[in-house]
Amino acid sequence: MTTELVVDVKNQIKHALEEVRKKNIENVFFVACGGSSALMYPSKYAIDREAQKIDAHLYSSNEFIHRNHSKLGQNSLVILCSHSGTTPETVEAAKFARSKGALAVSLTNEPGSPLAQASDVVLKYEWGQEANAFTTNYSVIYQLVFGVLKEVEGNSKFEVIEKSLENLQSVYEKAASQSHDSAVEFGKQYKDEKVIYTMASGANYGVAYSFAICILMEMQWIHSHAIHAGEYFHGPFEIIDEETPFIILLGLDETRFLEERALEFSKKYGKKLVVLDAKDFDFSGIEEEARGYIAPLVLNFVLRKYADNLAEQRNHPLSKRRYMWKVEY
Amino acid sequence: MTTELVVDVKNQIKHALEEVRKKNIENVFFVACGGSSALMYPSKYAIDREAQKIDAHLYSSNEFIHRNHSKLGQNSLVILCSHSGTTPETVEAAKFARSKGALAVSLTNEPGSPLAQASDVVLKYEWGQEANAFTTNYSVIYQLVFGVLKEVEGNSKFEVIEKSLENLQSVYEKAASQSHDSAVEFGKQYKDEKVIYTMASGANYGVAYSFAICILMEMQWIHSHAIHAGEYFHGPFEIIDEETPFIILLGLDETRFLEERALEFSKKYGKKLVVLDAKDFDFSGIEEEARGYIAPLVLNFVLRKYADNLAEQRNHPLSKRRYMWKVEY
């Protein structure tokens, strides 16, 4: 089953790249909302660092439509994502992109959804405990992005990334197992907190953002804010004291110095620090030059275990909502 | 005195544009930290909407250096800002930009500062209660940016923006006077709050960000987070209830719909709402087509009065710090 799905993802990417090849792509817009937007941050980081020609932009779906970026046009690739494929702003954004002549490629778990119907190309990703990492959203978007970099401007990292993603599942499993006790401890220690900050930089910032707005604010009703580790010293750090909890992420990319500096300071004046350092995990099977890009995926996977434990300790299931899908908005 | 300074700013911009003209500018990087970064958000919004050729990117200074964007080069204009001109990351960023062949233009209040020395061109701006709006940071960067759009690709809005900025001071004064009672009331009503969120979109998001990280977190040690009004419905809105304060900004740009939608929802489920709507202010003297761009400047000016009153009511001066400039970091 998994092998079939792996082959299927590869075929889907191949098809998407055939469509990309027909265009003269000059820029990529990453367009989604909330968690689906957050999973695109590492891809923007990758294009920023790797691309010789392509420019990358990232906007929440409605901001994308109303801002109406002047460079959006027939040489644009717009990459969208909605898990259910029903997020109205993102469906509208796909239509808007196509009305400008752009190529709209959408990631979704529901290939029959409105988003899928509104897009030129659909990439179905897998989801849940049983899914192999290679077939999930973070992996599929990386395959697409590095594939585009290869097709459009001959970037050489596609194979390295693809091979690393094929080996990602075992990294996930080892990291989760290694973090089991820390995740349980996190749930117990932080269950009564009213505010929990998250912090990261570079490729990892989206993971901090996702944990802050989706897990803490949305699913746990805990106040939060994803602080950029570089911005920390220019305002936010005045908030830290021995009572204020911070989840600090350390990745393996070129901005790691920013995260290390933020951690070092936080250790001096804070006491409630939850540190997830990608260096502590076993990245066997991930090529050396891909590790900076893969680290946020691993951190995100491990953090979900932290979320599970927090929810359990608080008797507040991650599925509990008061407004989302329940009231008009 | 003011007239002399107005002429001086115009001469400085003229000189900067002469340097721009010598290059073949393809992209602009906005590089600064904290509040100095926040004041660049409207300029990125302007380029995103207006530019036919130029791409705009915005990064915190250390992220800019370590991310090492592949498009940074001799066809890049890097616009930096530091009030004192001593922010180490921003000084380093100027050096880094020039090492890549880019043109580094810096805004600062201190033309003899390290940042000024590390840059190709220095733009001194005025500051404080006595300064005319035309000579302050938000105005100077707009003059530069619209000047660049004019020089590089013939955009026609420079004169409209310049004229509007010349009339900005009286808009500021009327808006502040009109908001006096609301600002006093804000200080009284919210002085005991532990968390205050801010929210906006488009050109105004940077103002929300600045108020969250510089005023609330840095200067008042109040928990905060600037929520993007479009992202609100994809996570953050689950946090709102009758006890949770939100400052909601409404500007005059193309994304106003996002802010209106966020406000409408918040009114249903929240009670502690502080609404600043640019529509309530008198924009006489600001050209119609410039109003969307000018609104964040007015909102920012008025919000400073809110900050003053909050600080006074809390007996916590805006100048009070525990770490910044006091300890090693």
Automatic annotation (TrEMBL), chains A, B:
Keyword Transcription recorded: no
Keyword Hydrolase attached: yes
GO BP annotations listed: fructose 6-phosphate metabolic process; protein N-linked glycosylation; UDP-N-acetylglucosamine metabolic process
Protein EC: 3.5.-.-
Superkingdom to which the source organism belongs: Bacteria
Gene3D superfamilies: 1.10.10.2240, 3.40.50.12570, Glucose-6-phosphate isomerase like protein, domain 1
InterPro entries registered for this protein in UniProt: FrlB_SIS (IPR035488), Fructosamine_deglycase_FrlB (IPR024713), GlmS/FrlB_SIS (IPR035490), SIS_dom (IPR001347), SIS_dom_sf (IPR046348)
GO molecular function, one term: hydrolase activity
Keyword vocabulary terms for this entry: Carbohydrate metabolism, Hydrolase
Domain SIS stretches: 16-154
Pfam families on file: SIS (PF01380)
Function: Catalyzes the conversion of a range of fructosamine 6-phosphates to glucose 6-phosphate and a free amino acid.
Assembly with partners or alone: Homooctamer.
Identification of the protein by name: Fructosamine deglycase
Organism: Cytobacillus oceanisediminis
